[in-house]
Design brief:
By secondary structure, this protein is of the alpha/beta class. The protein has 13 helices and 12 strands. It has helices spanning 22-28, 46-57, 88-97, 99-118, 149-165, 196-201, 205-210, 236-246, 269-279, 290-299, 306-313, 324-327, 331-355; strands spanning 4-5, 11-13, 33-38, 60-61, 65-68, 70-72, 75-76, 124-125, 172-175, 216-219, 252-257, 283-286. An 8-stranded parallel β-sheet has the order 8-5-3-2-12-11-10-9. Helix 3 packs antiparallel against helix 4 (99-118), helix 4 packs across helix 5 (149-165) and helix 4 (99-118) packs across helix 13. 49% of the residues are buried. The active site is at residues 186, 256. Belongs to the glycosyl hydrolase 3 family. NagZ subfamily. One of its GO terms (molecular function) is beta-N-acetylhexosaminidase activity. InterPro entries: Beta_hexosaminidase_bac, GH, Glyco_hydro_3_N, Glyco_hydro_3_N_sf, NagZ_Beta-hexosaminidase. Its EC number is 3.2.1.52.
């Protein structure tokens, strides 16, 4: 099949299995689509993943971006043949006792995570999680580095720099912060009733600290009623006034998954896309809803801008990268894997002793 010459669009969509169907090929060739997000269901083994990503990249020129939620801890979509990345909370706990080791280890996690994905032609992962650990969010939990925004800033910087060393961009999430709200936005709409001053001095601090290191940001499906009645991902106050205006962020803004229950109050899937784009999102995610994707492709109107292309261009992986076999020859990669495996062994031993 010849590649279709077509610039990338604002939709991030998923696929159903480990190979592409004919209907999915047609969807991925649509001008509104710009990225494919993969899940665990799309992975059997490394060879299958490499074939799948090659087939996706072969559909268009420039090639579609391929992303994944692959943060470490419990959010690691690919496991067999991949290094087990520890939870970000475990790295934050290490920071409390050995800050230098935690910093080096977090950088190693960023490099290994990105290197192993890129060696399978996965371009991008939605990381790091910048939410603070208030000990009450059912969906964030150990995905958070720490309660202290300074520690979150320090360790997320290390992770981002490790990812950048492997040529991968990043995505800070979930702006302005999902850690305080208890509910899971996958199944209901959470609320965070704190005043803006509290959110600015705590949850927004990592975004301000990271500055231009952030190449993209994903807002939360959370309502902050003292600021706006709309969830952050549909709010011009949060995206244009606060993120773009006060914080000066000029990278790409993704919506969170618009098929989540936290987005349902905005309307049907077409209304959600329109609301997110109007509020300031550059790209919108529609996952686990092929009928919704079809509806949006048939109804959504969107005008390309030079600024969109510039922001999307920053997400492109940088430089050629070795194959999985080539990573074996990298002494830096191997040293980073050893740091991670040694730490994982310590965590396993600690858990075993506690259970006894």
């Amino acid at each position: 099949m010849d590649k279709i010459e077509r610039p990338l669009g604002p939709l991030v969509v998923d696929i159903s299995g480990t190979t592409l169907t004919n209907d999915e090929i047609k969807t991925l060739q649509h001008p509104l689509v710009g990225m494919v997000i993969l899940f665990t269901r799309n992975f059997e083994n490394i060879e299958q993943l490499r074939t799948l990503t090659h087939d996706i990249h072969a559909l268009r020129n420039p090639p579609l971006l391929i992303g994944v939620d692959h943060e470490g801890g419990r959010i690691q979509r690919f496991r067999q043949g991949f290094t087990q990345i520890p939870s970000m909370k475990s790295l934050g706990e290490l920071y409390d006792t050995d800050s230098q080791r935690a910093h080096a280890l977090t950088g190693a996690c960023g490099l290994v995570m990105a290197a192993e994905l890129r060696a399978c032609e996965v371009d991008f992962t939605f990381a790091p999680c910048l939410d603070l650990d208030y000990g009450q969010s059912t969906v964030i939990g150990n995905r958070s580095f720490h309660r202290n925004p300074k520690v979150v800033s320090i360790l997320s910087t290390a992770l981002i720099c490790g990812m950048a060393e492997a040529g991968m961009a990043n995505c800070g999430k979930h702006f302005p912060g999902h850690g305080y709200a208890k509910a899971d936005s996958h199944i209901e709409l959470p609320e965070d009733d704190r005043p803006l001053s509290d959110i600015r001095s705590n949850d927004e601090a990592p975004y301000q600290s990271l500055g231009t290191l952030l190449t993209s940001v994903m807002p939360a499906h959370v309502v902050y009623p003292q600021v706006d009645s709309s969830p952050a991902g549909f709010s011009k106050k949060w995206l244009k006034d606060e993120l773009r205006g006060r914080l000066g962020f000029n990278g790409l803004i993704f919506s969170d998954d618009l098929s989540m229950k936290g987005a349902a109050e905005v309307g049907d899937i077409t209304a959600r896309c329109e609301a997110a784009l109007s509020a300031g999102c550059d790209m919108v995610l529609i996952c686990n809803d092929p009928e919704g994707v079809s509806k949006v492709l048939n109804n959504q109107r969107w005008i390309r801008t030079k600024l969109f292309d510039e922001r999307l261009g920053r997400l492109q992986p940088k430089g050629k990268f070795p194959s999985r076999e080539g990573l074996v020859l990298s002494s830096n990669y191997q040293a980073c894997v050893k740091l991670i495996n040694d730490f994982n062994a310590e965590l396993a031993k600690k858990d075993s002793n506690q259970s006894i």
